[in-house]
Amino acid sequence: MRKKIVAGNWKMNLDRTQGEQLIQDVLAQKAEVSKGAILVFCPPFPHLGYAKSILGAENSIFLGAQNCSDKASGAFTGEVSAPILRSFGVEYVILGHSERRQYFAESDSLLAQKVDQVLANGLQPIFCCGESLEQRNAGDFVNLVSEQLTKGLFHLSAESFAKVVIAYEPIWAIGTGVTASSAQAQEMHAALRKHIAKYYGEAVAQNTSILYGGSCKPDNAAELFACADVDGGLIGGASLKASDFIGIAKSF
Ligand code: PEP
């Protein structure tokens, strides 16, 4: 059975005091999270150490990073590798977020190498894909987003692919307050699952968690999560406030 996941992408927000407070506040409300759902905090790198200490042996809340290097170690100033993340208790790594693709020119081939690093170190990629408004209006957006999966992930064996979480994030919905309708989300999620099935078979596709991201809030999460192929959310803005994050996590 595929996992239900609500992952919070803090992006470059919150200082240490604010981060500690947020984690404590979410922990205090964790009883409200829908049964069987797991939470993932994806803070900026420096938060990971203390976050792990606060979470301790928590078994339904995990740590994720927002990026990692395509290299294992060495003279790459400013980079953070998958082995380092693993040593801090990180279990998930967001890869291919549209902000990384756009502002840091991360290509499909670089992302494929990052995926390999993450998996080789026992971590799970949360692999982001999504189209711009211009691409949606041009009409061929389903193929375009499917291609992002092909190029970033389909070099993997079925065994490795089974560890990947997908996040469909239409770029026009990220941080804009404009959410994809449940019909738009379901259309893309179902298409991506079909695309995965074509390559890896139906069983692998049915076990792949596909999250939705893009202005997901407590007041629209239930409708999105009710879609047959939506297995949770990758949450930006609303992950910065405990009541909103929990409000989303109780929406399954
Ligand atoms: C994101 O950046 O991954 C995201 C989904 O942001 P927001 O929820 O703020 O749209």
Structure explained in plain terms:
With 252 residues, the protein is of the alpha/beta class. The protein has one domain (4-249): Aldolase class I (TIM Barrel), CATH 3.20.20.70. The chain has helices at residues 16-28, 48-55, 82-87, 98-103, 108-120, 133-138, 141-153, 158-161, 182-200, 202-206, 218-225, 242-249; strands at residues 4-9, 37-42, 61-65, 92-95, 124-129, 165-168, 210-213, 232-235. An eight-stranded parallel beta barrel has the order 1-2-3-4-5-6-7-8, surrounded by six helices. Strand 2, helix 2 (48-55) and strand 3 (61-65) form a beta-alpha-beta unit. The longest helix has 19 residues, at 182-200. The protein is globular. 44% of the residues are buried. The structure holds phosphoenolpyruvate (PEP). Residues 9, 169, 174-175, 213-216, 234-238 line the site of phosphoenolpyruvate. The site of phosphoenolpyruvate (PEP) has 13 residues, from strand 8.
Helix tally equals 12
Described by the principal axes of the CA atoms, the overall outline is globular
- Helix content bin: 40-55%
CATH superfamily: Aldolase class I
Structural class: alpha/beta
Helices and strands in order:
Blueprint: E1 4-9, H1 16-28, E2 37-42, H2 48-55, E3 61-65, H3 82-87, E4 92-95, H4 98-103, H5 108-120, E5 124-129, H6 133-138, H7 141-153, H8 158-161, E6 165-168, H9 182-200, H10 202-206, E7 210-213, H11 218-225, E8 232-235, H12 242-249
Helix pairs in contact: 1-2, 1-12, 5-7, 7-9, 11-12
Phosphoenolpyruvate (PEP) is lined by residues 9, 169, 174-175, 213-216, 234-238.
